[in-house]
């Protein structure tokens, strides 16, 4: 693979601990007791679905208004996510593969905060381009963001791969006609349209590039 399109949350950066903390604080704001909050269930729901899935599920469980839960989470989460760090080995992977003439791109549902975090850790230098929520593309599994990158940089789709940690990342890659690799570090994801490869370690991704 010569061209790598990365997801951000749960792929480049381990943002889930902060996201779960934000979701727990959101439920607590609505007077849900600590002993009622199952953080493992929240995590699995986000990984297998999305934050939106978690909002729907737990709003129904606790009898809350989805819009209020979503708004409160969106207010709390960005500040906490600023404490997130890249997965161990990601910096070395980006550096070494860039030197080996691999081209890296970002396609994420997160806004400009993703770029700010990459910049904080000195990682933006390894990316040719970044597509975020602020660019207004349709959410994955819609391939619009991937197609935008492929068309702008005239990428050979047979030499291009989408790497992400969720089913929707794999589906987006498949829908765009490129390769798809799943970073499933905790063996949680079941994908109908199978990824070309499945990884549990960053080093194994690096070896495959």
Explain this structure to me?
The chain is 46% helix and 13% strand. It has helices spanning 16-29, 39-48, 51-62, 66-81, 90-99, 113-120, 144-152, 167-176, 202-208; strands spanning 3-6, 103-107, 127-131, 160-164, 179-183, 197-199. The chain has a six-stranded parallel β-sheet, with helices on both faces. α1 (16-29) packs across α4 and α5 (90-99) runs parallel beside α9.
Question: What's the quick description here?
Answer:
The protein is an alpha/beta fold. Helix content is 46%, strand content 13%.
Provide a count of the helices: 9
The radius of gyration over CA amounts to 17 Å
Strand residues, percent:
5-15%
Q: Give the strand order of the largest sheet, numbering strands 1, 2, ... along the chain.
A: 3-2-1-4-5-6
Alpha-carbon distance between the termini?
Answer: 6 Å
| Total strand segments | 6
Overall pLDDT level: 96
Q: Helicity, in percent?
A: 40-55%
User: Oligomeric form of this entry?
Assistant: single chain
Q: Sheet with the most strands? A: 6 strands, parallel
Low-confidence runs of at least 5 consecutive residues? none
Helix/strand/pairing class, anyone?
A: alpha/beta
Overall, the morphology is: globular
Order of helix and strand elements from N to C terminus: EHHHHHEHEHEHEEH
């Amino acid at each position: 693979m010569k061209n790598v399109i990365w997801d951000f949350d749960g792929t480049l950066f381990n943002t889930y601990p902060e996201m779960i903390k934000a979701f727990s604080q959101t439920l607590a704001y609505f007077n849900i007791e600590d002993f009622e909050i199952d953080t493992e269930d929240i995590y699995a729901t986000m990984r297998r679905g999305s934050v939106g899935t978690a909002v729907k599920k737990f709003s129904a469980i606790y009898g809350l208004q989805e819009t209020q839960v979503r708004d409160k989470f969106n207010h709390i989460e960005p500040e906490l996510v600023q404490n997130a760090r890249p997965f161990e080995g990601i910096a070395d992977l980006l550096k070494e593969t860039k030197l080996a003439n691999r081209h890296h791109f970002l396609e994420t549902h997160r806004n400009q905060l993703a770029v700010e975090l990459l910049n904080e850790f000195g990682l933006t230098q390894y990316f040719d381009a970044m597509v975020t929520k602020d660019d207004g593309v349709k959410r994955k599994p819609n391939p619009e963001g991937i197609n935008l990158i492929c068309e702008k940089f005239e990428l050979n789709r047979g030499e291009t791969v989408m790497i992400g940690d969720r089913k929707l990342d794999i589906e987006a890659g498949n829908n765009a006609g490129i390769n798809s690799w799943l970073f499933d570090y905790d063996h949680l994801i079941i994908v109908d349209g199978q990824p070309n490869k499945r990884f549990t370690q960053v080093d194994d991704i690096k070896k495959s590039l």
